[in-house]
Hints:
two-stranded antiparallel sheet; three-stranded antiparallel sheet; alpha+beta; elongated; single chain; 14% helix
Amino acid sequence: MSQAKLKPCELCQNLSDIRYRIQYREEADWVLVCPQCWQQVSKDNPYYRYGGTWKARKK
């Protein structure tokens, strides 16, 4: 049985097999967030920047 490696979201700490690399505050570092947090912090945010998608590899 194959299983993806899950990693925690840097905001909510929930495990996810897909995370988005983003900046969402002025002069902030890049963070990896889950799809739910990504939707919350990107909406109407003038400081939002997308930097790519991390996907877990299935073993």
